[in-house]
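Record format v2
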Amino acid sequence: MSDFDEKPEQKKRVTAQMVADAAGVSRSAVSRAFTDGAYLDSEKRVRIRQVALELGYQPNALAAGLQGGRSHLVAIFVGNMRSPYDTAFVGHLVGRLNALGKWPILIDGSGAQASTAVEDVLRYPLDAMILRGGSMPEDLVLQCAKIGIPMISSGRPVDIDGVDNVCCRNADGTRSMTEFLIAQGRKKFAYISAPRAYYSSTQRRNGVVQALAQAGRELMAEEDGDFTVDGGFDAGMRLLSNHRPDALICANDATAIGALTAAKEMGWQVPDQIAIVGFDDIDMARWPSFDLTTVMNPIDRSVDAIIELLNRRLETPEKSNEMILVKTELVLRGTH
Amino acid sequence: MSDFDEKPEQKKRVTAQMVADAAGVSRSAVSRAFTDGAYLDSEKRVRIRQVALELGYQPNALAAGLQGGRSHLVAIFVGNMRSPYDTAFVGHLVGRLNALGKWPILIDGSGAQASTAVEDVLRYPLDAMILRGGSMPEDLVLQCAKIGIPMISSGRPVDIDGVDNVCCRNADGTRSMTEFLIAQGRKKFAYISAPRAYYSSTQRRNGVVQALAQAGRELMAEEDGDFTVDGGFDAGMRLLSNHRPDALICANDATAIGALTAAKEMGWQVPDQIAIVGFDDIDMARWPSFDLTTVMNPIDRSVDAIIELLNRRLETPEKSNEMILVKTELVLRGTH
DNA sequence: TTGTATGCGTTATCAT
DNA sequence: ATGATAACGCATACAA
């Protein structure tokens, strides 16, 4: 073997034609060797694959995608790449998509250039676009729908033709939690919210208010948070300086962790004097320093639902929109 | 306008040819209208773009990528999509790549099917492959190098031709921290590690040991963690039951948070009786309940370095390998 | 400045 | 079972 053979210095990508030449077969044979269920002598298939391996050949997915089939590319528009819940969510989703042979292209929705980014990514013939939290500009959603790209929104229902939705039963979750706390003997309820723009916070608040109304009560106090620990801390400080509730329900776990820290710092006994609960059940909620009672917003099930809707939509592109509602569960730990 | 016109039901993607027909120009004119710096009457360009917008035309990136230029696709192999540091890292990286017009395809390296996933993604003519933490099987790295895909590894140096590296000065970080604690008067040092397989934990331990040696000391105790809060909690419990160090250095922040929780639970006064410090400076480190003194492993600078190496490599594909070492910084909060 | 013609690497169709 | 050939949608060298 010559030195030249030893180090091919192949700058250009190996093509099917090269493999065909090397193996002494036609280009089509090579293509078939990489297509499951194609007519090809099994012995020849093995030989071709062998040659391909030696040459380092991989079918070019770009060219294959041009053929009209699926591209296997899926975009994920992530509203907030900083929040613990969303990042965990995306982590799971990516894993599931990988297992399915779908390749997720991530778009950071919080960036200033998010709209441009979406438009650029739309140049790829995507199998689907998944919206996670945040909000994609309406016109872009419409554009996707117009192009005919299946869209699945998670966390914020989108009522547009061609968009499927996965959403957790926010109000049910906080309603159950509130009922539980009432049954436990709590009487004076407060809520720390997130800005109105966040659909889920409003829904969660509704659940609290409904449960209280049913018991002939109402919220005694309320403060604005922003879904972050710092926001929860500040809101908790403000709220607990001016009121003495015995139950504090927070828009999410981050907020609750912040509020819990504030309460402890102010000398409140949790859960003796006050119950503080969150929503989501992020990893940190079960960290021993918090041991937070919360409402589980199940990532597994939500991702399952997304995958399910994705498969269904790819199978039947013209099917009508669907909305899968994901059930929550109370997670009773140490702060109630 | 007829009903038919109203709802075009366009299943097929709009192509440049359709736009050309609609605008009464040639196919190439349309192409030029979307290519910056191409010769085209500016008036005509505007008209073509207008028609394209109405029809919902986007150049097909798959077909464009086939042309031999860049695909603008970049794969990110993520070793651990659960750890707070890695997810934050990936979040930043995705944002930066988006801003550059590069589209990141995520591969979950912790999945069982990671190898298959990498091979499948390699079918796309990637502009680059970025390794974040974890470890990609060596043969796959070699395969990428052979194909000629630029690779950049972050968090774990890869010594293979064609692979650039970004790595934080782990040993420097813990050495500075140890020196600082020694100067502060701490005398009995302990370390909670991660499994040997993790390059960074070993490096960080080395820094501690070196600084101690220079002061004529050595580690009085050591326990095995696993880079998680739970692991840190357990290791902390074991360590503090059998020893009475006055400084506990942990392999990362998650470990430190776990150990800190354990220490408080056992009644230790932090920082009076013991200093507990971490590494990374994840978001949670500055949460008020922890207020953790730690070594910053700067995500911004690491991502900057990756982008820099990426640009340089794309500019000069044949350049020799580079390794950018990222400086750490002590972050002095409340646990020292 | 513009249109025509060719090539990119693959899969699908059609013969054989 | 296999090989030749036609799409796929675009960019670009070339001709006008």
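The two ends of chain B are 75 Å apart (CA to CA).
The first strand of chain B starts at residue 73 and ends at 78.
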